[in-house]
Amino acid sequence: MTVQSFYIPENIDIDDILRKNPINHIDGFNRDKLLYILHLLAEIPSNSKDLTNEEGYVPINAEILRRWIGKGYSDYLTYLQEAGIVESDNHFITGIKSRGYRFCVKYQQPLKSIPVTNLTLLKKMANNREVDKVEDEIIAQTTTSSKIDLSTIARKYKPIEKWYQSGGLKINDKLAHAYNAEIYLQKKERQIKMG
Q1: pTM, entire model
Q2: Domain count, the chain
């Protein structure tokens, strides 16, 4: 199995935070589950910028968290809020809007990678990567064939075009570049290790 990483703000020392704010109330506490939530706050906007609201809150679906982390997912979110790492918009509408979270100002920093060590999370992440690879292969086949379905591509990116034209699409070049550079280095490192 390839090495998977969490990407979290570089100034978060999770072990130090856990020492200063001991966890006694979460049954079966797992450090990687805590890191996974932090990782989501960086990953979701990088994959789906339109999900982040104007104040920078990232919606995190409770049902998805329950599948990845288990029933105690809300205890992890509460812990992160009480430790001053994340804050919430405390607004959700069942079936319509998930509660939003963002890093507190102190932790709105470039990202660093931390290896995933929880075997269950590793398997789930590997399965998601396999789905991504299949999608990438389909896209590659589509773009290398002589017929490219431009109408399908246009429909897929219509929301981005709308945001761009209205001036609502803003890209933080430094953070995007840092994130992409980190992903690139991780992939290169994996390629070197594999052979």
Answers
A1: 0.64
A2: 1
